[in-house]
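[Q] Does anyone have a clean C-alpha cell version of this?
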Amino acid sequence: MKEKEYFKYLDINEEERLRLRIRIEKGKVIDIVVQYESLLKESWKQIVRYDCAHGFFHRDVISPDGSKEKQAIAIKDMETALSYAEQDLKDRWEFYREKYLKKLKK
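[A] Here you go.
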C-alpha cells in the first residue's frame, strides 16, 4: 500500500490550504482525506474535512469548539470522491471560512 500526503494552497498568501492524504493499493485509490485548513491567529484550524472514516464517505464541517456537522455523501468510488471533495473545497472555501468565523465570534 502506498500513501501520499501533500498540501495545495488556495490563496497567494498561503493562509488557506487543502491537506490531501491518499492511500493507493494496486493502483487504485482506497482511502482519502481532503481537509480545508485556514491559518487563523498563527495556528492552522481545520474547517472542513472529507473522509471515509466510520465506513462511509462524508463531509465534516468543523466548528471552532471542535464539534462536527456530519453529512454522508453517496459516492462509493474513491477516485470520484477525491475529485468531488477537492473541487467542492476549491469552489467553496471562502463560504466555509466565513461560516467558521461567524461561529468563532459568538
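[Q] Thanks! Anything notable?
[A] The first strand starts at residue 2 and ends at 9.
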